[in-house]
Amino acid sequence: MIAHLDLQRTNKPYEAQMAEALQRVAASGWYVLGKEVATFEENWATYCGTDHCVGTANGLDALTLIFKAFDFEAGSEVIVPANTYIASVLSVTHAGLTPVWVEPDLATYNLDPLLIEKQITKRTKAILAVHLYGKCCDMAPIWDLAKKYNLKVVEDAAQAHGATYQNRKAGNLSDAAAFSFYPTKNLGAIGDAGAITTNHADLAAKLAALRNYGSKIKYHNDYAGINSRLDELQAAVLNVKLTYLDTENQRRRELAARYLAEIKQPELVLPSAETLLQDAWHLFVVRHAKREKLIDFLMHQKVQTTVHYPVPPHKQPAYTAYNHLSFEITEAIHNQVVSLPLSPYLTDAEADHIIASVNASWD
Ligand SMILES: *Cc1c(COP(=O)(O)O)cnc(C)c1O
């Protein structure tokens, strides 16, 4: 079986280096907010091109803390994409804010900038741009709207490590960006981990306090913060794996280029190739009206697929207040998407087999 993502295989090349890093931390006697976290924060800011990085325990906390740090009035509105993973929206509601949903552009699956402006009200305070599947949102029109209406822009870059837009990296395209280093992400820890990047020094200092009980000086609390520190062991692993991120993303692009060129199946919609070399290709998502048939056929061919995602956030039981809403484009996407295996350690022979299977006459 070709797994959708084989994490054992993904981490195998770094086994020795990771073991060495973990041992170093174990022997150091300093386990929370130590050297590894400080080094990773510096490395990740440098990689993204931002002035600051603040490590957090996971991606959801990173996003939630950003919204809390802005101190918007309760009930303020945030523009969110209807087509996203639920964590994007949870961060808004956890911060006591109201999500205002906007449909995606079917060509990119990301926020359709043309649909944002009519959702802006007096209560709107921010736009959450999610770079879904590893493709950056079209930021220029979002920046224009932010300027016009005095809004903050926040990136959910949890799927976009190393993706670029106008030669700038994801994480450096907004007031503050959240990353997740969940094991399956392009840069993945061996447990939960996250980070925030920003170019605002005051915001970075506040976020560094908020993730640590709201404290800048031990036992002195400026804010009612939380405990969401990036773990020292995970930071040590991330310092090792970061050095391979560009090479891995390059391999993802190579595989994506093959899929885009070689998959030929009528009525199967491939992702947009327009930004092939800018995208991080976290996932390779295709669309087909008879998705279940494709999934079953591929399973018979020993190719495992996943659906990202089967149920949109506004239709989840977690959000009953929004269940009555309907977003046609978002719901069509959720009914039709399938993610093919795409990982840096997929072999050429495996890619051959996946392509041949998708091209077979299963429809
Ligand atoms: C993974 C992910 C998150 C949440 O990250 P965690 O580290 O799992 O909390 C948020 N948004 C998107 C788009 C994600 O893919």
Plain-language structure description:
- The chain has 363 residues and is α/β, with parallel strands linked by helices.
- The protein is 37% helix and 15% strand.
- The protein contains 12 helices and 13 strands.
- The chain has helices at 7-11, 15-28, 35-48, 59-69, 86-94, 139-149, 201-210, 232-242, 245-262, 291-300, 328-336, 348-359; strands spanning 52-56, 77-81, 98-102, 124-130, 152-156, 164-165, 168-169, 176-180, 194-198, 215-217, 220-221, 284-287, 337-340.
- The protein has a 7-stranded mixed sheet with strand order 1-9-8-5-4-2-3, with helices on both faces. It has a two-stranded antiparallel ribbon with strand order 6-7. It has a two-stranded antiparallel sheet with strand order 10-11.
- α2 (15-28) packs antiparallel against α8, α3 (35-48) runs parallel beside α8 and α4 (59-69) packs parallel to α5 (86-94).
- The radius of gyration is 20 Å and the shape is globular.
- The two termini are 21 Å apart.
- Pyridoxal-5'-phosphate is lined by residues 58-60, 84-85, 87-88, 130, 156, 158-159, 180, 182, 192, 194.
* Biggest pleated sheet: 7 strands, mixed
Residue fraction in strands: 5-15%
Percentage of residues assigned to helices: 25-40%
Element string (H = helix, E = strand): HHHEHEHEEHEEEEEHEEHHEHHEH
Q: What hetero molecules are in the model?
A: pyridoxal-5'-phosphate
| Through-space gap between termini | 21 Å
The SS-based structural class is: alpha/beta
Radius of gyration: 20 Å
